[in-house]
Amino acid sequence: MCGITAFTGQEPALPFLLQGLEKLEYRGYDSAGVSLVDPEGIITKKAKGKLEALKEELNKEMYLQQAGIGHTRWATHGIPSHLNSHPHINADNTISIVHNGIIENYQSIKEGLEMQEYTFHSQTDSEVIVHLLDYYYDGDMIKALKKVTSYLEGSYALCVTTLDEPDTIYVAKKESPMILGKTDTAAFCASDIPALIAYTKEIIALEDQQMAILKPGKIQVLDQEGNKVDVQPVFVPYDLEAAQKNGYETFMEKEIAEQPFVIKETLRSRIEDHILMPELDDLAMEDIHAIYMIACGTAYHASLYAQYLGREWLSIPIQCVPASEFRYGNYPVDEHSLCLFVSQSGETADTLAALKACKKKNAKTIAVCNVLDSSISRIADTTLYTCAGPEIAVASTKAYTTQLTLLACIMLKLAELAKVEVNGYDQLLHDVKALPETIESMLGMEEQMKEYASFLKEQHDAYFIGRQLDYVSVLEGALKLKEISYVHADAYYAGELKHGPIALIEEGTVVIALATQKDVASKTISNIEETIARGANVILIKAKGVHSDKIAHQIEIPDIHPYLACLPATILLQQFALWSAKEKGCNVDQPRNLAKSVTVE
Amino acid sequence: MCGITAFTGQEPALPFLLQGLEKLEYRGYDSAGVSLVDPEGIITKKAKGKLEALKEELNKEMYLQQAGIGHTRWATHGIPSHLNSHPHINADNTISIVHNGIIENYQSIKEGLEMQEYTFHSQTDSEVIVHLLDYYYDGDMIKALKKVTSYLEGSYALCVTTLDEPDTIYVAKKESPMILGKTDTAAFCASDIPALIAYTKEIIALEDQQMAILKPGKIQVLDQEGNKVDVQPVFVPYDLEAAQKNGYETFMEKEIAEQPFVIKETLRSRIEDHILMPELDDLAMEDIHAIYMIACGTAYHASLYAQYLGREWLSIPIQCVPASEFRYGNYPVDEHSLCLFVSQSGETADTLAALKACKKKNAKTIAVCNVLDSSISRIADTTLYTCAGPEIAVASTKAYTTQLTLLACIMLKLAELAKVEVNGYDQLLHDVKALPETIESMLGMEEQMKEYASFLKEQHDAYFIGRQLDYVSVLEGALKLKEISYVHADAYYAGELKHGPIALIEEGTVVIALATQKDVASKTISNIEETIARGANVILIKAKGVHSDKIAHQIEIPDIHPYLACLPATILLQQFALWSAKEKGCNVDQPRNLAKSVTVE
Predict the structure, then answer these.
(1) Which of A125, A194, A488, B149 is found 20 to 30 A from A516 (Cα to Cα)?
(2) pTM
(3) B45 SS3 class
């Protein structure tokens, strides 16, 4: 997954390209590069590592060229290196491209081009594109792009410059995002809105199979055949300030602290004496024979939570499947299926592909997204938004808890539509409303979690265990820890420990156990005691009234309906991961190998 | 699987028979029995349960007879009981036999014998042999044996005594082991070397279709036609414990090596041009609205495999849930539910509790067990048996692959009952039949896996990745590794890697990737390349035709239907875990913290 930018105008292009790449660094930071179009030839500069390295390189000279393209890379093919960095250029340095996406059939194209005497300098899939363009280009770049994109299998957002037309940027897109914008004197594009927002608040989201021609002050969108398409820009009410750290050392800390507020925002006008969700009022639950929950990573854990509630309340079979498995699996989706997609960015490639497949089969589709006008939200029948605001830290915190909150409301709404009477409905609704205060009170427990996190200082491993809904929380707790602190953390069903994983427990091993679900708490306590017998150092997160003398470290969540206990428990687990990472000196916001939004398979 | 012994000499036979049975108890311990040839008649003593019970019975008197046969039983047909115990005798108590193996066509032989007025006392397949011998015996036992064995379909190792020749033991063998030995004053035989080793170290392993005549101090081997065969004994250099492990250093190695045989036994009389599973013929699939697969640990992985096949073939919602979660979950089980329980021991506490709960709700219940008359098999409506024989090593190997084999047959049978046409049915059936040979060929790849396992020597972690059915295999591969080598191994959906776990990959991290499912192999290869870009040391287990230049260590499984690829892949992963544990000096058979059968929550 990468981020790309492009600019053409009556002023120097580099400032836009660099500020844009900076805003897009959340999409990857293995290497970065730019091409600037100069009448003397195309100037290309690249650097391995973070954007800072490229900036240093570029600071050595003055670059006043008025058109260019830029790229920040998250390696998918080939190691992060200078040669594998974008932009890629053709042999006589007359065409330069940046690409975001994956070309699946690059090997066969590469072999074909090699037979035509093309020489490859990188291990990337992207390099085939520039040589293929070179092969087909005869002075008409749109003609060449049409030809080339017809050969490409996979996904791409593509920006192309040529020496023949130094003031023109050519753009093409399929399954990777591309946002266009312009001023009176310039036109530009990038992979995401924040890269454009300092220049314009009116944006065009290019659609799949479309192309565009950018010239100073002008944008022309074309369809697959090259016919002009009339597109109106939309206004984005985006607040750039929101992306600042607001006094916190890291974005993750800021985002953890924002949770009471963003949960409140997410619940705003959603809840009175019942759930207000007019978007779903027309959903005929009696026609629904199966529910599928589809998502990736943290959003998949949120979906597991929703699945649990659904199984408690609805008599419809409900299945939660990782999107990467779902899209290649044989699920009997049809017009009687309700498919629910959860994605913070709304751009997650596997989730998006699964959504498209379900639409084709005429399923009812609901999306839960955090980003307005994202690809997933544009395609789903209905999108319900978490109001978490921009999440910059790669490890999701506020997006996850707002997903849990919104999904609890959605499942209650589905139960109401299915005319199911939910046990303890009033208590549940009361506790949902009180979530912002409950979460606020959890933030005060940070010192305690910081102390517990110090247990991991010398540890390489951690094991999370829980039953029923606690299993969802331990999955997320373990993911958070491994994402940012590189502690090898894993989550197990407490009852499955004895069937193998307990072999890993030795003197001093840290076990994080959850017992917030009172009806199975005593079973989990038994499992915990078995790990203590093998020397485990156990931290227990528990509901009031759950008791064990043998566990040295215990922390209690406030009284709350057990179906909502995931939320306060998750705050503790976020703090645990955060402080473990900080103690170990890890980069909390930009963990190695990870990108914020996974827009490739 | 059973164990048999026989002795004829100038000294009492009983001491040899009993010490031999003791050494063979690993082959089964449901019941035991002996026949001793006395001029007054054949004396037969049996006892249900372990050998100790028989010894107590025999201690009541002194038995000085100089010829006899003995048996320790692992029930396959008929519950463990006195009547079903061996030896079996004819009506006038002049012939007694012990049998190890399975007679596939015993039903039709039994019907024929019943028409000849023969009365049967047991539910065993073995009893037909003694009556058939009685029918054909006219004073020449070799002639009778030739006739009888020509009728038997299946496997047998057979010892026969007659009152007519009190000092002679007749032996016949096909596909079940039979080891012969002698001293100057005695001759004897047994199912395995350990039973002989205290008496001689020179042994003869009888070959298929051969017969033998034992007299004190003499052994005569005959071919199928009754012609004498000249056989030279071989010297066995190993000690007793090693002998019990059949020359293998550990039980796990022995059990891995047994897989071709036990899979063959499991498939015996189950498969012709369709699946033979009369136990399920009365199951009304049209009444089934939901299927639940319930199990723990390794058996849970086998159930995930069955779930996958079920989703491909059946249009009924199917869910696989760990037993510890199922029993406390809110699953709408009723008389329209089919619940399938998998447990090697048949005693797993959580699985048993879940079974009882499902029975109470009037669900249809099927068990897959390896131990006859176990608690689960007694309670389930129907039990289908894996014929893995006793599994001694705590980490399951042959029990798992026989579960996979039997579950594949069960799911095919359910598809047939549901009148579903299975795509590529003939190919699938062909490949199921060929599993024993396929697995045999995998055993030859041990050296390669041993080399790969050495990569873990300095490693604390390992990551297993795969998609679709490969995900089941990586779950089991990771469990095996952590169970016996204490390497912190975990399995991830390949497509989920980028959503967090890839943060754990660093220079030299060992990643075991599976790509046996061709339709998603290229996606997995992309994910693998992402880990390589971060320094991972990848071992790829792949199907023929799957290709990547970038992966240094690749091993190919034979051409096989993708739905069966789990089986050969699992053999490799077993070997990988085994050799990793051996290199690290771990106790392979009895890993720390684990027990063979988990009979508590």
Answers:
(1) A488
(2) 0.77
(3) strand
List pLDDT tens digits, range A149-175: 999 998 899 999 999 999 999 999 998
Q: Sort out which chain A residues have CB atoms less than 8 A from B479's CB and list them.
A: 500-501
Q: Please state, as a whole number, how many other Cβ atoms lie within 10 Å of the Cβ of residue A533.
A: 12
Handedness of CA A476, A477, A478, A480 (dihedral sign): positive
Is there a contact between B598 and A498 if contact means CB atoms under 8 Å apart? yes
Q: Is A46 a catalytic residue?
A: no
Strands B537-542 and B553-556: parallel
And the tokens for B339?
A: 């619940």
Closest CA to B181 of B206, B168, B200: B200
* CATH, domain range B444-586: 3.40.50.10490
Burial of B381 (0-12, 13-18, 19+ CB in 10 A): middle
Q: SS3 of A244, please?
A: coil
Q: With 0-12 CB in 10 A as exposed, 13-18 as middle and 19+ as buried, what is A142?
A: middle
- Tell me the average pLDDT of chain B: 92
The token pair at B4 is 């048999």
pLDDT of residue A239: 60
Q: Residue ranges of the domains in chain B? A: 3-241, 245-443, 444-586
CATH of region B3-241: 3.60.20.10
For residues B20 and B198, the answer to whether their CB atoms sit within 8 Å is no
Phi-psi region of A213 (alpha: psi -120 to 50; beta: other; left: phi over 0): beta
A92 CB burial (10 A radius; 0-12, 13-18, 19+): exposed
Q: Is B444-586 in the same CATH topology as B245-443?
A: yes
* B328/A76 Cβ within 8 A: no
The CA distance from A475 to the nearest CA of chain B, in Å, is: 11
Q: Chain B window 122-141: which residues touch A at a Cβ cutoff of 8 Å?
A: none
Could you tell me if A519 lies within 8 Å of chain B, comparing CB atoms?
yes
Determine whether A457 is an active site residue: no
Query: Least CB-CB distance to A328: which of B315, B467, B529?
Result: B467
pLDDT above 90: residue A516: yes
Among A173, A264, A582, A596, the active-site one is A596
The pLDDT value given to residue A392: 86
Identify which of A76, A328, A330 has the shortest CB distance to residue B312.
A330
Neighbours of A454 (CB within 10 A): 12
- Cα distance between residue B497 and residue B484, in whole Å: 25
Q: How confident is the model at residue A247 (pLDDT cuts 50, 70, 90)?
A: low
Q: Which ipTM was obtained for this model?
A: 0.78
The number of beta carbons lying within 10 Å of the beta carbon of residue A472 is 26
**Dihedral over Cα of A192, A198, A203, A206: its sign:** negative
| pLDDT at B80 (0 to 100) | 62
pLDDT in tens, A398-421: 999 999 999 999 999 999 999 999
CA A340, CA A303: separation in Å to the nearest integer?
8
- Please list the alpha-helical segments (H only) found in A179-317: 251-257, 259-267, 297-313
Written as one letter, the residue type at B473 is: S
Q: Do B324 and A350 touch (CB under 8 A)?
A: no
Tell me the three state secondary structure of residue A293.
strand
CATH hierarchy code of domain A245-443? 3.40.50.10490
Residues 6+ positions from B55 with CB-CB distance below 8 Å: B18
Alpha-helical segments (H) within B164-245 = 240-244
The DSSP H or E segment spanning B478 is helix B469-485
The residue among A153, A132, A139, A145 whose CA lies nearest residue A210 is A145
Report residue B109's pLDDT band, with 50, 70 and 90 as the boundaries: very high
Q: Name the residue among A66, A134, A121 with its Cα closest to residue A94.
A: A134
Render the burial of A509-519: b for 16+ CB within 10 Å, e for the rest: bbbbbbbbbee
